[in-house]
Amino acid sequence: MNTAITEKGLTDKEMIAQAEAALGELAKVREAVGKVIFGQESVVEQTMIAILASGHALLVGVPGLAKTKLVETLGTVLGLNASRIQFTPDLMPSDILGSEVLEQDETGKRSFRFIAGPVFTQLLMADEINRASPRTQSALLQAMQERHVTVGGLRYDLPHPFHVLATQNPLEQEGTYPLPEAQLDRFLLQVNVDYPELDAERRILLETTGAHDAEAESVLDSSRLIAVQSLIRHMPVPESVVDAILSLVRAARPGHGNEHTDKHVAWGPGPRAGQSLMLCSRARALYDGRLAPSIDDVHALAEPVLQHRMALTFAARAEGMSVSDVIRTLVREQG
């Protein structure tokens, strides 16, 4: 039986009409980003999926792979206010969230005024997030989860939409504070940014070292992006896709009957991983021009969704095994 599970609120006709409009707009988004970011199609796709699914992404890659350029480009193309924070060991939570200052008016009356920090934006790049102290990391990650900050006992809501694209350098670990697993779980996806292919790198050399660089153009605005994000939550999901998500997530947990997992995995993904796979599969389908997700979407997103939500045993690490190896095995077993 392969029935579709849908969210209530939209008729089939309304769903199709809105989806067709969104498909055209997302095609223009892909084209606009492709004029500035050469190659890295999977990175662009996964980052866009995180945004369309109303989440945050952790971009892991060495310096110089256009991570900052990608965030700037997405901010322009999607019509979002964008800002950047360079994380350093001496960065304080107030440097991110904002702080209160004491002011005195003409009558001599004193009062506190809140000055918003750089987190009050719609698209935030947290550059080298693992270089900040755990206290500062927690301040940002709490804002990511709750979508508001509390300063001086008062609540200040963050803009809507609000997305964080954080970066990490996988090579240089000296002087860093690795994110704890519970905080990594706040990220919808972990996007691995690899070196570009030969043709893409040739194009980078030719088109970014001349007198003029390509500039991104706005395609959407924030209100339209919010509408597309809402549409994704109403997209129908075949029951076979729901079963595939449940099967994959549960197989990644030790003690749930998978021999490979029991041998190599210390702890596995929680229910949030399944929620992430569900939303991201819908977003990937729409981004690729389809009106409903398939099992192929689940398999394609298994690694970016699960890899930062699992840990290997000491024996598995000693054998040179990686979390990605385990996930690929589970995907192959699922067929």
TrEMBL record:
* Record Pfam families: AAA_3, AAA_lid_2
InterPro entries attached to this UniProt entry: ATPase_AAA-3, CbbQ/NirQ/NorQ/GpvN, ChlI/MoxR_AAA_lid, P-loop_NTPase
Q: What is the top-level taxon of the source organism?
A: Bacteria
**Residue span, ATPase AAA-3 domain:** 56-189
Q: Which residues form the ChlI/MoxR AAA lid domain?
A: 261-328
| Keywords annotated in UniProt | ATP-binding, Nucleotide-binding
Q: Does the keyword Cytoplasm apply?
A: no
State the Gene Ontology terms under molecular function.
ATP binding; ATP hydrolysis activity
Q: Which family does it belong to?
A: Belongs to the MoxR family.
Q: What is this protein called?
A: ATPase
Output the lineage of the source organism: Bacteria, Pseudomonadati, Pseudomonadota, Alphaproteobacteria, Hyphomicrobiales
